[in-house]
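Slide 14.
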Amino acid sequence: MMYEIFAQTDQGRVRKNNEDALAFDPKTGLCLLADGMGGYNAGEVASSMAVAFLRQELTAWLSQPGSRASVRELRRTMETCVNQVNHSIFSAAWSNPDYAGMGTTLVAGVFLEARLVLGHIGDSRCYRLRGGVLHQITKDHSLLQEQVDAGLMTAEQALTSPHRNLITRALGVEDAVSVEINEHRVEPGDLYLMCSDGLSDMVLDPVIAAILNASGTLQQKAAALIRVANDGGGRDNISVLLVQAAEDETRRGLLSRMLGK
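Slide 15: predicted structure.
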């Protein structure tokens, strides 16, 4: 499988700084997105710490010479790295009054051949567009999602709830955190979207789907998503990371030659 990746972030129209952080590494298929929270500039510190540490550690692990990472090993390594950076952010928040209460959401994905190993904490999301149909493949760690799961409100009612930003899990706010990790099969033609709630709170899923289904490059689609979020008010920082999966033509050509086709 071959992957094309593009990421873009925007301050939005209300916030004075950007507390989102993004990173990706095409060679290893690593993609990271974090949305910080906390006092003055503290959210920016937390998200930057998370993305910088995870990029360094996971890229180094995935790039080890002669290694062929298994999904089980990757899950274990991802959990270890998340626990380490959680401790670092938590310790920094306790030792510096300016950083008190800081934390961050996280979406961390590794595209490993035809599999996606996806970890997340909080309400930043990952969507998959397959066959023209958009599906959210992460479930928010939020009070609102818990109420929907408990049958206390419908998904439609949740769209207009005033408590949309109350998350129940975040990186760095407690001395321990649980990262939810799931494995997904990737098919040629799949398009994956990681985003902060600056997009998902401002733009309805059908609109996101229409933009992703439209013709154009990943850069054009990312710009369109951010533009629509800003047109709707841009009340938060907006970050999008797009990953397009395609069949490896080199491998398919080799297989065809081996089969005499």
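Speaker note: The longest strand covers residues 2-10.
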